[in-house]
Amino acid sequence: MGIRIYPPITNASGPLSVTYEELERIARSATGAIVTKSMTHCPRQGNPEPRLWAHLDGKIGSLNSMGLPNLGYQEYAKLIPKLKEFGKPVIASIASAPCAHNLPPVEQYREIAGAIEKAGADALELNLSCPNLEDVPISMDPQSVRAVLSAVTRDVKIPIGVKLSPYNNVPKLFEEIARTLLDFEIAYVATINSEPLTLDIDLKTRAKVIRPNDGFGGLGGPAVLPIALAEVHRFYRFFQKHRAQIAVWGVGGIIRAEDAIKHFLAGASVVQIGTLFLWEGPQAFERLWAGIQQWLTENGFSSVEELIGQVRDA
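^ thats the sequence. predicted structure below, dont judge the formating
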């Protein structure tokens, strides 16, 4: 069960996607879908400031430990019908986090998914990989991934995507997670979430650039492009080998049209934009899509579909 995104470019859940005003700006842009901030059972203020360092030296990326600030799923359920008026698919990103109601994470995902489907969302994106909470991300434990997917896919009928951590240093875990996904009707895998446990220092103050988690945060932007491409390609090859109808959505490092082209060649059918959107705002989608179309024309291709997974061996 898939979802058609055209143009095949969206915002990544996270930057500038919390409030209705921010989501409306996305809806009015050239993006092919509207992806919400990861919503949790209870509203969250997120981690203390400073929690975002938007421009690492030389614009190699961004560093954050936001802590999932969001309005809570009940508010997003009210906003979804308004967002659907723009005629684009609305993809609701959902996550679990400590909450006053003390529901276990699996129950949080199940309850939110049911309510958001009822509100009219076109798809769900299960964020199993937030690196900036106290607990180890669900995406790092195959049994937890299975438990969440079992609970959500049992009742929800709309397409479901899964946003995952980079597994670049744990190939055995990648294999376990990928095999787990084969047991469920998943529409797509979005990879990667930000590279965790990264640090930067401001030389003017000689201080860590963010405060939460002892200064450690998730890295996004150009610096993670090779990691993201590797994860996209590994999942694409795995799903092709097992003849699984699971798409791969590429996330990470895209600031130029050429970066998106690399994601398509590696196996992505859709790309999501995070740090660039933070830097440039909604006009980034129009610029990238125009650049992608120009590259296709100049290189003799008529569509992105002709590129997907067509990277050659050296």
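The chain has one domain: 9-306.
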